[in-house]
Design brief:
With about 150 residues, the protein is α+β, with helices and mostly antiparallel strands. It contains 4 helices and 3 strands; from the N terminus they run E-H-E-H-E-H-H. The protein is flat.
Length: about 150
């Protein structure tokens, strides 16, 4: 059996690079003082080398590992997932929905098939009106001119 490594989050990742923060998250560490147990391997060693200044690392003997802490950080083997997990309770399997033909869309009342639909035409952007308003509409307010400050001479 591979040895296991206990990683404890000891120093804040605030102010560190985004790469370091994401590595902490990938190790399963979110809060200061939180610990996670991982199986030793070269990829884990590389991650620990990157954030060694933020975590404390200790090697753990398999008998002394808390099963609950190990369960949270260790992925469930594929064989257990298929068998319904460690408790043996069957898990609901997702069944793929039946494939639909490529051009079909859900039928709705009054819906026009996609092949006969006309593209939606948006009105062209218009400039602000520069001509006089039509009769019967209120006259536009005159533009307010700002007074220039008196120059000191």
């Amino acid at each position: 059996m591979k040895s296991r490594i206990k990683v404890t989050y000891t120093r804040s990742g605030i102010g560190t690079s985004l790469r370091h923060q994401r590595t902490l998250r990938a190790l399963g560490l979110r809060k200061l003082g939180q610990s996670a147990v991982h199986a030793d391997g070269p990829s884990l060693r590389g991650m620990l080398r990157l954030v060694a200044h933020l975590v404390s690392i200790e090697e753990v003997v398999a008998a002394s590992v808390n099963p609950e802490a190990m369960r949270s950080a260790t992925p469930i083997p594929a064989a257990e997932q298929l068998a319904g997990g460690p408790s043996g309770a069957p898990q609901r399997k997702r069944t793929p929905s039946p494939a639909k033909p490529a051009g079909s869309a859900p039928a709705q009342e009054g819906a026009v098939p996609a092949s006969t639909r006309q593209p939606e035409v948006k009105p062209a952007r218009t400039r602000k009106r520069t001509t006089a308003p039509a009769e019967g509409s209120p006259a536009p307010k005159p533009a307010v001119k700002r007074k220039k400050k008196a120059e000191e001479s």
